[in-house]
Write a structure and sequence with these properties.
about 325 residues, alpha/beta, Rossmann fold, 2 domains, 6-stranded parallel beta sheet, about 40% helix
């Protein structure tokens, strides 16, 4: 089948949206499908459209359904679809969701925030990752922590930097932040923090290979987001064997579980600081984080994600 995948992220973008859509296309291609990735829809015929983000891809969704009313449509929901645009721009977001024949969600709790009439369309397909090719070798001289994510409001990107300011002087924690600044204001804020906070190091936008190298040498990863749709970086860290401390939001607990020991109240740098200090000084707690992530690892295999997408495409196409 010819499958048109629509994403707001262009091919030069190093973000989760682009990573996700490229991976999905690769899975579907391995099952014999003809896949094309586009940032806009040109009106051409296809057997199925997969649109990433209801709000960002609304124009493509509307055009596709106008030209091919019975054309199968899958909409993969982003965190901003549910947490932001469904509230701030419902006249665009909700119709895009309603036009879908299937809604793909990336974590277990996203459905709780959707209108009830849409839940029958939900399919949970968590994102996968590949294991590291090298053995992990965290620094013994310092307790290094990584933050993987672009600097924008949704990511609450400097929360970890704020948290490590509260640590005792004896702490050997260092923070390495990998991610592009969304605008000049965020770039200035990160540079200022780096000057004032000797524990914080901003490395800017990096490649996927550099992220994987960071996973080899880091003790743990912090994901401090205000909202997420099911971040692929959680999958990547778990498969790499990197324990996680994360904000207690549905997008994180929906992947890690409500009882995951490394969750802290969102936007609370004091609580985050306490967990970071506990991870550094309490080997039992760090081991607990490791074990909790290890138990989740089978859920994030590429084989499992590929089969889930193949079954969804097969079931959807059989109904048309």
């Amino acid at each position: 089948m010819k499958i048109n995948l629509i994403t707001p992220a262009n091919k030069y973008t190093k973000n989760g949206n682009r990573t996700s859509i490229v991976r999905w296309a690769k899975f579907l291609k391995s099952y014999g499908h003809n896949t094309q990735i586009n940032t806009e829809y040109d009106g051409s015929a296809c057997d199925i459209m997969i649109a990433l983000h209801a709000w960002h891809s609304a124009e493509a969704i509307n055009l596709y359904k106008a030209k091919y009313p019975k054309g199968p449509l899958i909409v993969a929901l982003g965190g901003t679809d549910v947490n932001t645009f469904l509230k701030t721009d419902p006249n665009v977001t909700l119709p895009a969701m309603e036009k879908a024949d299937a809604l793909v969600c990336l974590h277990d709790q996203i459905g709780e925030a959707l209108p009830q009439h849409l839940t029958k369309k939900l399919h949970i397909i968590v994102q996968s990752a590949l294991p590291l090719k090298q053995r992990r070798n965290p620094s013994k001289r310092n307790f290094d922590i990584c933050v993987i994510g672009h600097l924008r409001d949704e990511k609450d990107p400097l929360r970890t930097a704020m948290a490590v300011r509260l640590l005792d002087k004896s702490s050997k924690i260092r923070v390495f932040h990998l991610g592009k600044a969304h605008n000049e204001a965020w770039a200035k804020a990160a540079k200022k923090e780096q000057i004032e906070n000797p524990r914080y190091h901003w490395l800017g936008e990096v490649t996927a290979a550099q992220v994987r190298r960071e996973f080899i040498k880091t003790q743990l990863m912090v994901l401090s987001s205000n909202q997420e749709g099911g971040a692929n970086v959680i999958s990547e860290a778990i498969v790499a064997g990197v324990p996680i401390i994360a904000s207690n939001i549905p997008g994180n607990s929906g992947l890690l579980g409500h009882n995951y020991p490394g969750l802290y109240p969102v936007r609370n740098e004091k609580a985050l600081s306490i967990l970071l200090q506990k991870a550094e000084t309490n080997p039992h707690f760090l081991s607990q984080l490791h074990q909790s992530c290890y138990k989740l690892k089978p859920r994030f295999t590429p084989e499992r994600e590929a089969v889930a997408w193949a079954k969804l495409i097969e079931n959807l196409s059989s109904n048309f």
